[in-house]
Amino acid sequence: MSNLSFANLFSLRGQLVLLTGGYGYLGQAIARGLATHGASVVVLGRDEATFQTTFTAESTIHFQFCDVADTASVQAALAAVEAHYGLPAVLINNAFYSRGSRPDQLTDEEFALGLDGSLVSTYRCIREALPYLRRRGGGKIINVASMYGVVAPDFSAYEATPQFTNPPHYGAAKAGVIQLTKYFASYLGPENIQVNCVTPGAFPSPAVQEQSTEFVEQLSRRIPLGRIGQPQDLAGSFVFLASRASDFVTGHNLVVDGGWTIK
């Protein structure tokens, strides 16, 4: 490999990246990290007004309406993206939706919605994006899981703030995302499509941080690095997995948790 190739390992210039959930707390950092490295990013979401407020000056970050809960909407969004921007090189499944948090009182409907919001929606987007990646001759899929797809919650962290208790359908769905990643990495390897997963640790939103410093302290106490994650801590993992630097990486779960899951 030439020196020039080494210099451009992390370049995303000329790459079209599809990102669901791209205007949320962590999604913003992911989108901006990718765009900074040269990617053209299309955020797939339902709220264009929020997108416009979030990305006021980024000319390489675009919006396309898409409801990941609805197959027809995903299909229409992908067709529109191809018509406007061309074939995608990368799909990032970051969006999720859920309802209910009390571990032993979730209704059947709440549990099913939580599974759909993390696991089924990820499968739905993979399935519908595959024809586009195949026509391109390859590409990359990056799924987003959670540390609670790897380990069980430490419930003592929630004693003072039970409203923040992580529910069982969330962790179950995120564990499924990790296995789905491995499955499709094996299935799609011969087609030059790499499938990987990013597992964030404790990245409480600004609203949660404002509501309870005690909760943030409880989380920080359990993290070997001694602090909660910040959005910029996460962006680099997506740049790596979207770039040529990860061309020989597939089926991997990249954990970005400050060390939470090592204990």
From TrEMBL:
Q: Which InterPro entries match?
A: NAD(P)-bd_dom_sf, SDR_fam
Task: Cite a single Pfam family from the UniProt record.
Answer: adh_short_C2
Q: Listed GO molecular functions?
A: oxidoreductase activity, acting on the CH-OH group of donors, NAD or NADP as acceptor
A GO BP term here is: fatty acid elongation
Out of the domains of life, which is the source? Bacteria
Family assignment? Answer: Belongs to the short-chain dehydrogenases/reductases (SDR) family.
Q: Spell out the PANTHER family in the cross-references.
A: 3-OXOACYL-[ACYL-CARRIER-PROTEIN] REDUCTASE, CHLOROPLASTIC (PTHR42760:SF40), SHORT-CHAIN DEHYDROGENASES/REDUCTASES FAMILY MEMBER (PTHR42760)
Q: What is this protein called?
A: SDR family oxidoreductase
